[in-house]
Write a structure and sequence with these properties.
By secondary structure, the chain is an alpha/beta fold. The protein contains 15 helices and twelve strands. The chain binds iron/sulfur cluster (SF4).
């Protein structure tokens, strides 16, 4: 019998995510929100739980997190806040990789999510087995993955990075002569590659929200609001990034909104960020970067359908029942935490503050 050599794994030209759900916002009857919030506040105390919410969740969830001593932040800070919190249960309002990151950094705590079906197209576009075979086919390359990945993909990586530190980490590796694999976001990977000149093989994932922003739509808005500044998250296409006054992570964009002198801001990221951004920049006019116009195909137009799955009713349900607990295989978690800690150690040595290091 002739043994056939395994074919090298070829990276797909694109990794589209099918069956993106529609955006469905929670609609409550008059008085229902107040009653849900009252019950949730009681249960958070009874269950020794703290709520950590991402910037892209609803304003109601963000307000509730802050009113109850939790936090509203990016994925990494959510996990770090949870680690420092005295409560034994973390309720993560966000998407699954955020719940997993919280569990990886807090294996001794219980992590719940208001809706465990909340996915992320970047995570979905990078199945761990496919990605591992791709890495195996390029053993000479160091593996750098973005925070928006599963625990298993983080476990396969040498480094996990967030959007705000990605350029610095990759520049550091490039200076050491290292060649890299980058996953999963091809737009962020392209941005980092251009910024550093590093030799990077890019996985072809994308965010269904950010890839729909349109450069021509932003140009048209700029023509109308000549003094407006453009704020862009680097998961957006290169043509959109090229128009930016500021490119940054969620936390960096909120900070920029407060600090920029312009009174009108065109914002190319999930519109859930407007709640905190408006609080940080009161009196400024925030405009959603267009996703429509010529060639528009967006289903999730400037708002993530999976983030929208986080609801007050779902939150109450998991607090009442303990359903939708996030579990990570302990062996996978122990490997994944190595890639996260490598980034944190790099940030510490480089004197980069953790606050504002955002994954999404
Ligand atoms: S906005 Fe994009 S990157 Fe963020 S969770 Fe949703 S699909 Fe993922």
């Amino acid at each position: 019998m002739i043994a056939l050599a395994a074919a090298p794994f070829a990276m797909p030209a694109a990794c589209p995510v099918n069956n993106v759900p529609p955006v469905v916002e929670e609609v409550l009857a008059p008085g229902e929100e107040a009653s849900l919030i009252a019950r949730i506040k009681t249960l958070l105390i009874e269950r020794d739980a703290v709520l950590v919410a991402h910037y892209y969740t609803s304003a109601a969830l963000q307000r509730l997190a802050e009113e109850t001593g939790g936090c509203v932040s990016d994925s990494l800070e959510m996990a770090r806040f949870g680690h420092a919190a005295k409560q034994q249960t973390l309720v993560v309002a966000g998407v699954r990789f955020m719940g997993e990151t919280a569990k990886i950094l807090n294996p001794e705590k219980r992590v719940l999510m208001p809706d465990r079906r909340a996915e992320c197209s970047l995570d979905l576009s990078c199945p761990a087995e496919d990605f591992s075979r791709f890495c195996d086919a390029h053993p000479e390359r160091e593996v750098v993955v973005y925070a928006n990945t599963s625990a298993a993909v983080k476990a396969r990586a040498d480094w996990m990075v967030t959007s705000s530190i990605a350029v610095k980490v990759v520049a550091h590796l490039h200076a050491q002569g290292k060649r890299l694999i980058w996953a999963p976001d091809r737009y962020l990977g392209d941005y980092v590659r251009k910024a550093t000149g590093a030799d990077m093989l890019l996985w072809q994932g994308s965010c269904v929200v950010h890839e729909k922003f349109k450069a021509d739509g932003i140009e048209a808005l700029k023509a109308e609001y000549a003094d407006a500044a453009v704020l862009v998250h680097p998961e957006s296409p290169a043509g959109v990034i090229a128009l930016a006054d500021v490119v940054g992570s969620t936390t960096q964009l909120i900070r920029a909104a407060a600090e920029l002198p312009q009174r009108t801001l065109i914002v190319a990221t999930d519109n859930g960020i407007f709640h905190k951004m408006q609080l940080a920049a009161p009196g400024k006019t925030l405009l959603e970067a267009p996703t429509g116009g010529q060639g528009a195909t967006c289903v999730s137009c400037a708002h993530c359908p999976w983030m929208a799955m986080n609801s007050l009713k779902g939150l109450l349900h998991v607090l009442e029942t303990g359903a939708d607990e996030i579990r990570v295989d302990p062996a996978v978690g122990r490997r994944a935490v190595v890639s996260i800690n490598r980034m944190l150690a790099f940030a510490g040595q480089a004197g980069i503050g953790i606050a504002g290091m955002s994954g999404d």
